[in-house]
Amino acid sequence: MDKRYFIIVDMKSLDGYIEFAKFFLGDDQEFSRAVFGGLQFVGDTDAAIALRMELLESSNGVDEVLQTIYCTLKQLKENCEFITKEVFRHFIF
User: Fold this and answer.
1) What is the distance between the alpha carbons of residues 48 and 54, in angstroms, rounded to a whole number?
2) pLDDT digits 0-9 by tens, 29-81
3) What total of structural domains would you count in the chain?
4) Alpha helices in 23-72 (DSSP H)
5) Is the pLDDT assigned to residue 93 strictly greater than 90?
6) Side-chain half-sphere of 93: how many Cα atoms within 13 Å?
7) Phi and psi at residue 60, to the nearest 5°
8) What Cα–Cα distance (Å) separates residue 2 from each residue in 55, 59, 62?
9) Tens digits of per-residue pLDDT, 7-21?
10) Cα–Cα distance between 88 and 85 in angstroms, integer?
11) Structural domain range at position 85
Protein backbone atom coordinates (compact mmCIF):
# COMPACT_ATOMS: atom_id res chain seq x y z
CA MET A 1 0.00 0.00 0.00
CA ASP A 2 1.78 3.11 -1.24
CA LYS A 3 0.93 6.29 0.57
CA ARG A 4 1.60 9.71 -0.91
CA TYR A 5 1.22 13.06 0.81
CA PHE A 6 0.10 16.42 -0.52
CA ILE A 7 -0.76 19.88 0.74
CA ILE A 8 -3.89 21.17 -0.96
CA VAL A 9 -4.67 24.90 -1.12
CA ASP A 10 -8.33 25.89 -1.47
CA MET A 11 -10.13 29.22 -1.65
CA LYS A 12 -13.68 29.85 -0.54
CA SER A 13 -16.24 30.62 -3.23
CA LEU A 14 -20.00 30.98 -3.24
CA ASP A 15 -20.30 27.25 -4.00
CA GLY A 16 -17.83 26.06 -1.37
CA TYR A 17 -14.07 25.59 -1.57
CA ILE A 18 -12.17 25.39 -4.85
CA GLU A 19 -8.78 23.69 -5.02
CA PHE A 20 -6.26 25.89 -6.83
CA ALA A 21 -2.87 24.52 -5.76
CA LYS A 22 -1.39 21.17 -4.80
CA PHE A 23 2.07 20.47 -3.39
CA PHE A 24 3.49 16.94 -3.62
CA LEU A 25 5.42 16.00 -0.47
CA GLY A 26 6.40 12.44 -1.32
CA ASP A 27 5.78 9.25 0.63
CA ASP A 28 7.35 10.13 3.99
CA GLN A 29 4.62 10.76 6.56
CA GLU A 30 7.00 12.14 9.19
CA PHE A 31 8.44 14.69 6.74
CA SER A 32 4.95 15.63 5.50
CA ARG A 33 3.60 16.20 9.00
CA ALA A 34 6.70 18.23 9.92
CA VAL A 35 6.26 20.50 6.89
CA PHE A 36 2.56 20.97 7.58
CA GLY A 37 3.31 21.63 11.24
CA GLY A 38 5.64 24.47 10.22
CA LEU A 39 2.96 26.43 8.37
CA GLN A 40 1.57 29.76 9.58
CA PHE A 41 -2.15 29.90 10.21
CA VAL A 42 -4.98 31.87 11.77
CA GLY A 43 -6.64 28.85 13.33
CA ASP A 44 -7.65 25.32 12.52
CA THR A 45 -11.37 25.85 12.92
CA ASP A 46 -11.92 29.33 11.46
CA ALA A 47 -14.02 28.50 8.39
CA ALA A 48 -14.77 32.22 7.93
CA ILE A 49 -11.26 32.65 6.45
CA ALA A 50 -11.24 32.34 2.68
CA LEU A 51 -7.98 30.35 2.34
CA ARG A 52 -7.66 26.77 3.54
CA MET A 53 -4.71 24.37 3.51
CA GLU A 54 -5.08 20.62 4.03
CA LEU A 55 -2.61 17.82 4.56
CA LEU A 56 -3.84 14.97 2.37
CA GLU A 57 -2.84 11.31 2.45
CA SER A 58 -3.56 9.37 -0.73
CA SER A 59 -3.48 5.57 -0.73
CA ASN A 60 -4.78 3.28 -3.49
CA GLY A 61 -6.98 6.02 -4.93
CA VAL A 62 -8.51 6.92 -1.57
CA ASP A 63 -7.78 10.41 -0.21
CA GLU A 64 -7.95 11.28 3.47
CA VAL A 65 -7.56 14.77 4.92
CA LEU A 66 -5.27 14.47 7.95
CA GLN A 67 -5.19 18.12 9.05
CA THR A 68 -6.75 21.43 8.04
CA ILE A 69 -5.69 25.01 8.72
CA TYR A 70 -6.94 28.43 7.59
CA CYS A 71 -4.62 31.31 6.72
CA THR A 72 -4.51 34.87 5.48
CA LEU A 73 -3.15 35.79 2.05
CA LYS A 74 0.12 36.96 3.62
CA GLN A 75 0.45 33.68 5.53
CA LEU A 76 -0.30 31.74 2.34
CA LYS A 77 2.57 33.54 0.60
CA GLU A 78 4.93 32.63 3.44
CA ASN A 79 3.62 29.07 3.54
CA CYS A 80 4.17 28.53 -0.19
CA GLU A 81 7.75 29.74 0.17
CA PHE A 82 8.30 27.50 3.22
CA ILE A 83 6.85 24.40 1.52
CA THR A 84 8.96 24.96 -1.60
CA LYS A 85 12.16 25.34 0.42
CA GLU A 86 11.47 22.26 2.54
CA VAL A 87 10.55 20.06 -0.44
CA PHE A 88 13.62 21.27 -2.32
CA ARG A 89 15.85 20.43 0.66
CA HIS A 90 14.20 17.04 1.13
CA PHE A 91 14.46 15.87 -2.47
CA ILE A 92 17.66 17.61 -3.60
CA PHE A 93 19.96 17.40 -0.58
Assistant:
1) 16
2) 999 999 999 999 986 666 677 899 999 999 999 999 999 999 999 999 999 99
3) 1
4) 29-37
5) no
6) 6
7) 55, 40
8) 16, 6, 11
9) 999 999 999 999 999
10) 5
11) 3-92
How many whole angstroms separate alpha carbon 70 and alpha carbon 60? Answer: 28
Q: Which pLDDT score, from 0 to 100, does residue 72 have? A: 92
For residue 45, what pLDDT is reported? 65
Query: How many CB atoms sit inside 10 A of residue 26's CB?
Result: 15
**CA 81/CA 41 separation, integer angstroms:** 14
Q: Is 44 helix (H, G, I), strand (E, B) or coil?
A: coil
Backbone angles phi, psi at 38, to 5 degrees: -90, 0
Residue 53 near residue 8, CB atoms below 8 Å: yes
Tell me the chain's radius of gyration from C-alpha atoms.
13
Residue 5, strand partner residues: 26, 57
Strand partners, 4: 58
Query: Is the model's pLDDT at 2 over the cut of 80?
Result: yes
- Cα 7 to its chain centre, rounded Å, is 3
Record the pTM: 0.91
